[in-house]
Design goal:
Layout (H helix, E strand, L loop, with lengths): L2 H40 L4 H18 L6 H7 L1 H10 L7 H12 L7 E9 L2 E8 L3
Antiparallel strand pairs: 1-2
Helix pairs in contact: 2-4, 3-4
Amino acid sequence: MHEDDRIELALAQILEGQRRIVSQLEALPARVAAAMLGERQERRLDTTDLAALRAVLPLIFDAVGSATWQLRDLAADRPDVYEALLRAAGASGPSPDRKAGKLLARAAGVPVRGLLVERSGERRSGALWTLKEVLR
């Protein structure tokens, strides 16, 4: 094999390797999206959380709709719904808001009775929450 032939073969192998890399890079966004969707679908709530959320999320949605809210807002504006959330979270003792917030955090991204909890950010010392209606 002549030197020119070896160079030509090496260049062909490099070009083929680059084509494979480009093909893999082009497929990457779809693979990432599929992995994210699969992760979202795999996330499940335990039966206790699910039962509690099925009872309380419609009450919260009736009270605040799809507006962004904080636990302290719910306590001030709709104490009946706030108390229902605390009961659903099993929240008692020194930090009831923390237990309620943890229940909402576990529910984030998991549809329950056509509602989806989203953590929308932080304000002062607490989380901001939003409920969205989703297709069942």
